[in-house]
Amino acid sequence: MTTTPGERFRQHAEEYSEDADDERPLGAYSVLLVAYISVVTALVVFGRKRLPGTLAPPDLALGAVATFIGTRTITKHPIASPIRMPFTKFAGVSGPSELAEDVRASGWRHAIGELLTCPFCLSQWMATTLVTGVVVAPRLTRTVMSVLAIVGASDFLQLAYARAQQMASD
């Protein structure tokens, strides 16, 4: 008796998740992964004539800082909580100007909630978006990356200043 790819996937998913505390939304993860790969493939196919051999070091540095602060803003900042709200529940404060949130139930809401609350997970998507922007709309993208980098530097300075004040009063 032959099994279909869907049946094999479900069997592997059950074996993979049998010791997990919660149900792993592997189907939703798979669709998100296929969507990401499809977008990247389309960008390469349709934009390959415009692809640079490499990104310039200033673009790499600016992109790294912009990816860091962009993902922190989307995944942790209180002002971005309406974006995360359909997929998360407020769980408390995790740091200065950052929220802790629990992902919702199961399936799509869980998978997207994990993506929107995990800076490490979202950074791949953010970096891909920014690199694509550098290729497709370099001036606009560098401006956006510059704003994010300036905000990141400002956040760092705000935290350093607060820490210096705290140390001076101790």
Question: How would you describe this protein?
Answer:
The chain has 170 residues and is mainly α. The chain has one domain. 71% of the residues lie in helices and 8% in strands. A two-stranded antiparallel ribbon has the order 1-2. Strand 1 and strand 2 (98-103) form a beta hairpin. Helix 2 runs parallel beside helix 6 and helix 3 crosses helix 7. The mean pLDDT is 89.
Classify the secondary structure makeup into a structural class: mainly alpha
Biggest beta-sheet profile: 2 strands, antiparallel
State the domain count.
Answer: 1
- Average residue pLDDT: 89
Order of strands in the sheet with most strands: 1-2
A few lines on this structure:
The protein is built from seven helices and two strands.
Question: What are the defining features of this structure?
Answer:
two-stranded antiparallel ribbon, 2 strands
Walk me through the topology.
Blueprint: H1 5-17, H2 26-47, H3 57-76, H4 81-84, E1 88-95, E2 98-103, H5 107-117, H6 119-136, H7 138-169
Antiparallel strand pairs: 1-2
